[in-house]
UniProtKB/TrEMBL annotation:
<dbReference type="Pfam" id="PF01182">
    <property type="entry name" value="Glucosamine_iso"/>
</dbReference>
<comment type="function">
    <text>Hydrolysis of 6-phosphogluconolactone to 6-phosphogluconate.</text>
</comment>
<comment type="similarity">
    <text>Belongs to the glucosamine/galactosamine-6-phosphate isomerase family. 6-phosphogluconolactonase subfamily.</text>
</comment>
<dbReference type="InterPro" id="IPR037171">
    <property type="entry name" value="NagB/RpiA_transferase-like"/>
</dbReference>
<protein>
    <recommendedName>
        <fullName>6-phosphogluconolactonase</fullName>
        <ecNumber>3.1.1.31</ecNumber>
    </recommendedName>
</protein>
<feature type="domain" description="Glucosamine/galactosamine-6-phosphate isomerase">
    <location>
        <begin position="18"/>
        <end position="241"/>
    </location>
</feature>
<dbReference type="InterPro" id="IPR039104">
    <property type="entry name" value="6PGL"/>
</dbReference>
<dbReference type="GO" id="GO:0017057">
    <property type="term" value="F:6-phosphogluconolactonase activity"/>
</dbReference>
<dbReference type="InterPro" id="IPR005900">
    <property type="entry name" value="6-phosphogluconolactonase_DevB"/>
</dbReference>
<dbReference type="GO" id="GO:0005975">
    <property type="term" value="P:carbohydrate metabolic process"/>
</dbReference>
<dbReference type="InterPro" id="IPR006148">
    <property type="entry name" value="Glc/Gal-6P_isomerase"/>
</dbReference>
<comment type="pathway">
    <text>Carbohydrate degradation; pentose phosphate pathway; D-ribulose 5-phosphate from D-glucose 6-phosphate (oxidative stage): step 2/3.</text>
</comment>
<keyword id="KW-0378">Hydrolase</keyword>
<dbReference type="GO" id="GO:0006098">
    <property type="term" value="P:pentose-phosphate shunt"/>
</dbReference>
Length: 260
């Protein structure tokens, strides 16, 4: 990151008594981010992950405050499988959310299946989608998403950025490819840290006791450099952890009360 940036804000940990309460208030947070963005510039740019995240977005389905025609949706990472394959993040987000809401299909930006044979070209083509969305409008070195939603695996990976992988050091590319993922499927594309860390808001969403030890490790020992701990949005961006009490049960990191 360039040296003139002010240091990042400390992450805010917001814990909810139940997964349902988390889903409800996460939807309220997304609505607020959407409103701020549309009021400022007439559009809302959001990037989604796969894994357990899509099912945490169900609070958006019946929310009357969502202006779906103003959303521009991208994927933080994607598995290189057909878009209707069970491993596809796009399929997971469609099944959990998009099939149930009136979002225009052209506002959801997927990877191009015609390029699956050539990973570098596939990553470049997705980067070009970001350039088209952001470069003319924002004139920034990296895109500035209004909101990026992330999950985290038990090993501390996020997006398709895995522990001890070379991509953790990538500083130039916006979108990179992975052909040796430690968990299947092996081939993926992923946003890099500069893209994630330039967002206005980044939210990790996690629930369940199986995430508790890793969350404690990431929040209390960021210097150890687990992939999730390297998500530190540059100022004035803000990082949030939306978790349920089970996921927060092993950390002594201070909690912040949820306020819109």
């Amino acid at each position: 990151m360039s040296s003139h940036h002010q240091p990042p804000h400390a992450p805010l940990l917001i814990a909810f008594p139940t997964k349902d309460a988390l889903q409800h208030d996460l939807a309220a947070f997304i609505v607020r981010a959407q409103k701020d963005s549309i009021d400022k510039k007439g559009r809302f740019t959001i990037a989604l992950s796969g894994g357990s995240l899509p099912n945490m977005l169900k609070g958006l389905i019946s929310n009357s405050h969502i202006k779906w025609n103003h959303w521009q949706v991208y994927y933080v990472d994607e598995r290189v499988v057909p878009l209707d394959h069970p491993d596809s993040n796009h399929r997971a987000c469609t099944d959990a959310l998009f099939a149930h809401v009136p979002i225009p299909a052209e506002n959801i930006h997927t990877i191009d299946p015609a390029l699956f044979g050539e990973l570098e070209e596939l990553a470049d083509s997705y980067e070009k989608l970001l350039i088209h969305e952001f470069a003319q409008k924002d004139a920034a070195r990296f895109p500035v998403f209004d909101l990026i939603l992330l999950g985290m695996g038990p090993d501390g990976h996020t997006a398709s950025l895995f522990p001890a992988h070379d991509l953790l050091a990538e500083e130039d590319r916006w979108v990179a490819y992975v052909e040796d993922s430690p968990k299947p499927p092996l081939r993926r594309i992923t946003f890099t840290y500069p893209v994630i860390n330039h967002a206005a808001r980044v939210v990790f969403v996690a629930s369940g006791a199986d995430k508790a030890a890793t969350i404690a490790h990431v929040l209390e020992h960021p210097e150890e450099g687990l992939p999730a701990a390297r998500v530190r949005p540059v100022f004035p961006g803000q990082l949030y952890w939306f978790v349920d009490d089970a996921a927060a049960s092993k950390t002594v990191y201070p909690r912040t009360e949820f306020k819109l």
